[in-house]
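Database export, one record per block. Field names are fixed; values are copied verbatim from the stored entry.
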Amino acid sequence: RIVFLGRMVPAVRSLISIPAGMSRMPFWKFMLYSGLGTVIWTTFLACVGFYLGENQDKMHALMSNVGNMVMAIVVIIALCFVFK
């Protein structure tokens, strides 16, 4: 399950092979879960790209909102550190 879900998490995707190898996970099992996770993640990204590619204005609005949320989170974390 970890390999399957790890293929869908951006920061973990490239490193999930290390713990799988260290735990001596059977190769066929690793390839099955890794392949399924990769196919699902790639299909999701392709669908998002296809949808947003046709709607550049919606993509710009979405990314603007995400950027604002990230900035708000960074400011809140910085304020927490300052007040501690």
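Remark 1: Residues 3 and 34 are 6 Å apart (CA to CA).
Remark 2: The two ends are 39 Å apart (CA to CA).
End of record.
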